Structure formats: C-alpha cells, structure tokens
C-alpha cells in the first residue's frame, strides 16, 4: 500500500501547482469578462440589451428540446408567438393608434401571471420545507419539484416580459417623438408661410 501511495504521489507530482494556475486563470477570466460586460452595457446599452435578451429567449430552447421538456416548449412557443406579434406591431412606422394599448395589456397580463406563479411556487417550496405537504399526502419530492418549477416559470417569463416591454416602449417612444417633431416642424413651416403671405398685404395697404 505504501509503495502504491508513493507511486501515486510521484505520478501526480506538480499537479497542485497546475490546479492553482487553472483556478487563477478562471478567476482572471471571470473578472475580465465582467469588466467587459459592464463597459459594453455602459457604452452600448441598446446592443447589450438586444443580445442578452436574444440569448435569454433562445438558449433555453436548446435544453428544452434536448431534455424533452415538452410542457415548457409549448408555453415557450405560445409566449413567443404572441410576443413576436406584439413586438412587430410596436416597431411599425407609422404607429397604429391601438398599438400602445395592445402592448400595455399583453405585458401587464404576463406580469400578473408571472407574479402569481412565482408566489405560488415560493409558497409550495416553503410548505414543503415545513412538512405541510404531508397533510395532503404529497411526497416531498413531488411538492418540491412543483414549487421549483413554478418559481422558474415565474422568474423566467417575468424577466423576459420586462425586457420585451422595455424594448417595445423604447421603439414606440422614438416613433412618437419623430412624429411629434415632424408635426411641429410642419406647423412651424405653415405658420411662417402664413406670415409671409400677410406681409405683402400689409405693405400694399
């Protein structure tokens, strides 16, 4: 046994230094990546929000298909279809008069559902930790899975709808601002043209 132990130490000699170097490289990479992300967010917030939103929206689809989470896939498809339609309406120019109300109603509905789902999931987890699930003859594993699933659904779709709502609001605000600017410039041009018509008339008198 001592001989084998000595051989193992001789074989793995120097691995401690290599492991320490790997940990230091990992920490340095995380710090540099965090600094780069912060700078990107500060200098180009719009592209940062678009890229992070796209990743958060699409990446779970890969794991859903791979792990056969069909319930999540169905909910994701329904949410994506309606949200894509609402986002399409919000980014059109000129903006339809009923679009802001549609955007507000849809994202408010998703917010309420996500909030309620998260609360129910949190309560289910807490009841399971206190053993109240045994009163209803529910296994702790099933109760905990149910609570964590609801918490995940509430957090995921809550954050997703918040980012989509901010994006749609920015697009609609920019569209409304351009329309207001064009209307004000048109009214100013009309007023100056009206004044130019009145000046010759006054001179004739």
TrEMBL record:
GO BP terms in the entry: ERAD pathway
Annotated membrane topology: Multi-pass membrane protein
Transmembrane spans: 20-40, 69-88, 109-131, 143-160
Record carries keyword Repressor: no
Any one GO MF annotation of this record: ubiquitin protein ligase activity
Top-rank taxon, per record: Eukaryota
PANTHER family documented for this protein: E3 UBIQUITIN LIGASE RNF121, RNF121 PROTEIN
Name of the molecule in the record: RNF121 isoform 1
Gene name of the record: RNF121
């Amino acid at each position: 046994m001592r001989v084998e132990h000595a051989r193992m130490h001789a074989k793995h000699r120097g691995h401690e230094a290599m492991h320490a170097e790997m940990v230091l490289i990992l920490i340095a990479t995380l710090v540099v990546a965090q600094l780069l992300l912060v700078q990107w967010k500060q200098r180009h917030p719009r592209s940062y929000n678009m890229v992070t939103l796209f990743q958060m929206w699409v990446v779970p689809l890969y794991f859903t298909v791979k792990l056969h989470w069909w319930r999540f896939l169905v909910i994701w498809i329904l949410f994506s279809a309606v949200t894509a339609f609402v986002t399409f309406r919000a980014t059109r120019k000129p903006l339809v008069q009923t679009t802001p109300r549609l955007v507000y109603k849809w994202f408010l509905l998703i917010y309420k559902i996500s909030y309620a789902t998260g609360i129910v999931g949190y309560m289910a987890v807490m009841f399971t930790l206190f053993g109240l699930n045994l009163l209803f003859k529910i296994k702790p594993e099933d109760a905990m899975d149910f609570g964590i699933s609801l918490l995940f659904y509430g957090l995921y779709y809550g954050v997703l709808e918040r980012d989509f709502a901010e994006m749609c609001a920015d697009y609609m605000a920019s569209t409304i601002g351009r329309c207001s600017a064009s209307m004000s410039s048109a009214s100013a041009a009309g007023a100056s043209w009206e004044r130019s018509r009145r000046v010759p008339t006054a001179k004739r008198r």
